[in-house]
Design goal:
Blueprint lengths: L4 E3 L5 E3 L8 H33 L30 H34 L4 H16 L2 H15 L7 E4 L2 E4 L2 E4 L1 E2 L4 H30 L5 H19 L6 E2 L2 E3 L2 E3 L2 E3 L1 H27 L3 H9 L4 H31 L11 H12 L2 H30 L5
Antiparallel strand pairs: 1-2, 3-4, 4-5, 5-10, 6-7, 8-9
Helix pairs in contact: 2-3, 2-7, 2-9, 2-10, 3-7, 4-7, 5-6, 7-9, 8-9, 9-11, 10-11
């Protein structure tokens, strides 16, 4: 193929520069600049048009309202709050309520979904069928309907506080929620928490040492039992050394309500149960798919080495299945967090509910919706970052 050349003044033939629209790299850069410019122009138009309309209707803009008095109560909160606090504190309370239900829900969902996923593959026909019925039933019922169902159970089925169910001493279940005793705060509990954190660090180092020792010598170490002894024994030892404080705040019925202890409201319980039971069905399917992705030869080889079924599952099957389980598990964690925004339908004061109240009082819907989007974006990115880090830690290293 003949090259496109040109003759310079010194008589040397040189290759003629190719037009940029024929160069794939330059053309790609040009189109990217064009798209970015179009998006920026559209954003400028929408923002300027919105600001102009707000000014025309004399609607205040900006986030100055966050420092004003909220003047509304919030039914339950993790931190102290009253109506005289600012909108900013009210939104923080809503965000903490969302974190509370999401964190507890994710932890329980992972354990429940893993258990049901393993039960789905059980050789016992009854256990396998029950797990399959649970998975199909929960997946086919919308989560919002499940929230309404559990909310109705608490308010329509459970008795009043005077006739509250008492499954164990100090624990009451009624239409006011789940009421149970909690330990009264003591300075020793701070040192117990530090001991627990130290035990976790020791367990992490022990696991690394045991894995390295096994790779070098082939000898196994009872990591689980020693780790359990550390995690339980060290905090208990510190607690006993500091006098073993065990004062409990036990709830008592006084008048028409309970005093003392802690109460998980019907809204919180309904939201938590609905999210856990719904999401656990999808987690169970991810666990089942991950386990089935491991070839049967792996199980047979492990059994031939003399490993017990529990050891085969823990040491051979699950480590290989995690690379299939973790990506969909991350998606289900994100779904649970985002589905918690449905709490507004049953009256639980999560971030969306508090933000909606703020919007109704201030009229600044654009800022309110922007805050909702920002908060859930932070929640999602944080969860994804943690799960991506964990995925890299547990992935199989090919040699």
């Amino acid at each position: 193929m003949a090259l496109d050349t040109t003759q310079t003044h010194d008589g040397v033939l040189r290759e003629k520069p190719e037009p940029f629209w024929l160069d794939p790299k330059k053309r790609a850069i040009f189109f990217q600049i064009l798209v970015v410019g179009a998006v920026a122009l559209l954003a400028w138009y929408l923002i300027s048009n919105t600001v102009a309309n707000l000014q025309r209707q004399k609607i205040a803009t900006g986030f100055g309202f966050l420092g004003k008095e909220a003047s509304f109560e919030i039914g339950e909160s993790v931190i102290a709050y009253d109506a005289s606090n600012t909108y900013a504190r009210a939104l923080v309370v809503g965000a903490l309520n969302t974190i509370k239900v999401s964190f507890i829900g994710i932890v329980i969902t992972v354990f429940l979904g893993t258990f049901i996923g393993i039960a789905r593959l059980s050789s016992n026909w009854l256990i396998s069928r029950l797990a399959a019925i649970y998975i199909e039933g929960m997946q086919d019922v919308p989560v919002l309907l499940q929230l309404f169902f559990w909310y109705a159970i608490f308010y329509e089925t459970l008795p009043s506080p005077r006739q509250a169910l008492k499954p164990m001493h100090g624990v009451f279940l009624c239409n006011r929620g789940l009421v149970m005793p909690v330990p009264e705060w003591h300075p020793a509990y701070g040192y117990v928490f530090l001991a627990f954190a130290a035990a976790c660090l020791m367990v992490w180092g022990l696991r690394r040492w045991a894995r390295k020792r096994q790779d070098e010598t082939g000898k196994t170490f009872p990591v689980f039992r020693v780790s359990l002894a550390l995690v339980l024994g060290l905090p208990l030892g510190v607690w006993a050394a500091l006098g073993a404080p065990f004062a409990m705040s036990v709830p008592e019925l006084r008048g028409f309500n309970f005093r003392g202890g802690t109460t998980w409201s019907p809204e919180f319980m309904a939201l938590l149960l609905g999210l856990i039971l719904y999401t656990a069905a999808f987690v169970a399917e991810a666990v089942r798919a991950g386990i089935q992705s491991v070839s049967k030869g792996q199980r047979e080889a492990a059994m031939a080495l003399g490993l017990r079924p529990a050891q085969v599952l823990r040491l051979v099957i699950l480590p290989q299945a995690l690379r299939v389980i973790i990506p969909p598990l991350t998606s289900q964690m994100l779904n649970l967090t985002k589905n918690s925004s449905l709490a507004v339908a049953i009256g639980y004061p999560d971030f969306v509910s508090v933000a909606n109240t703020t919007i109704n009082q201030t009229g600044q819907s654009i800022e309110g919706v922007a805050l909702i989007m920002l908060v859930y974006l932070i929640f999602s990115l944080s969860t994804s970052a943690f799960m991506n880090w964990y995925n890299k830690k547990v992935k199989l290293v090919e040699r």
